[in-house]
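User: Modeling request: complex.
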Amino acid sequence: MSAKTTRTIAEINARIKNGSAVVLNASEMTKLVRSKGKAKAAREVDVVTTGTFSPMCSSGLLFNIGQEPPVIRASKISLNGVPAYAGIAAVDGYIGATETAADDPLNKVYPGQFKYGGGHVIEDLVRGKAVHLLAQSYVTDCYPRREIDKKVTLVELPYAQLLNPRNCYQNYNAAVNLTGKIIYTYMGPLKPNCRNVNYATAGELSPLFNDPFLRTIGLGTRIFLGGGIGYVLGPGTQHAAKPKRNERGLPLSPAGTLMLRGDLKKMNARFLRGVSILGYGCSLSVGVGIPIPVLDEEMAWFTGVADADIQMPVKDYGHDYPQGIARVLTHVTYQELMDGDVDILGNKVQSVPLTSRSRSLEIADELKSWITRGEFLLTEAQEPIPSE
Amino acid sequence: MTDVDKSYRKIIYLTFPQEVSGRPMVCNLTRLFDLTFNILKAQIPPRREGNMTLELSGTEENYKKGVSYLKDHGIKVASAAQRISRDEESCTHCGTCTAICPNDSLYLDRTTMRVVFDKERCAACGLCTRVCPVRAMHVEVKNGNEW
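Assistant: Request completed. Predicted assembly structure:
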């Protein structure tokens, strides 16, 4: 019997460069590990690609609008009528995905439609559309200009980096509504009396289910982000390092998150879409794909995760969630949710996804083809993300 | 007893003249012609002209009898004033719309996990146009007799 397989990221990169690396998407890896076992899968496979495409609040764009003499110290900036944060420097701004247009009626006519917000601005920029830039100043001795009011496109912005403080939630709540009337939540519309259960995440394709303790993901990990190249910067906001886990090490509640960054100018609107969530607000659907190096048998085992292994907590968004009550009604597996009807509190409940599983697979396959063609090399994480 | 095909289904737009807007015409469609109705949209103010978008199902023969009955009572019957279309480029196949579609004309193909839009089943209620996060569902309004 030969020694247990181990390989380094440098060795994997050498194989990617000479075209011999074996790359599988996460679903293909699941089948391989099930059929041949983790030892054989570890010997055969170098990299597993993951993917997810889902609304991810806590996303946004860090940008610089450039100067045109006489120069300006902008104290207010908006793009297409959506306010950006301007308190960074003279002409730097940050526009968040969930910011709504300043004149949006919000929930005054309930449920509000939230037709245009920060996420839509980002999508429009990526599509090459001109957006209306309005920058205003109170005027200083060194910055005499009072206003910039013009149309700009992405290529004209000197700097545009997608900077997402929290993406890629590792597991998430499945939402039901136990009250007697329909509610409109960030988890979508929830019919009364528990008639639908809405869920997010891409299951066995989802990045952080394939590396549940973030052994290979940290500061500097190169990833697919919005159709371009991005990097992991570290744990995202609300990152929970010590969740309760099942016997496979998978969290039983929303746990790990990532902060991500990538050059917006290289991205593709197919994987970056502004979204309007009825009655709730605006957001951005973000496509993320993370390559997981199969360093050893343990990583082969982790990347062999199947939809049936993933247990998602079901929570009541009618009463409990708004009141901050952490009650979990039950756990259901991602496989059950995929199949259509799930058993909750003795009833058959229709399951409704919010994450596009088909586009998540497309992302995993796109990343796979980049690596297979030798265009995308893996990086070593420079600082680990706490996870236990 | 022989099986009767009650699968005939149509969505119609009714205009009620002032003098009949107070009468239980829709109820009579069920009582007299064994038609199942689903009111999709209605505005029938008392003693004024009203209108209603109605989905009817039953046998084709009874559907025709029912429509004649409505016309005999002075109600104008036209095919539905709107229908729904999907922007195939825009749809991300997330699945959110399947939560509210009242008659499963939007549903997930569980093997591909893509959202199927069955236009034949669609009752043109328009709920999906508001719920779709990327606004891929659109209402097409009838222009004359053409779509």
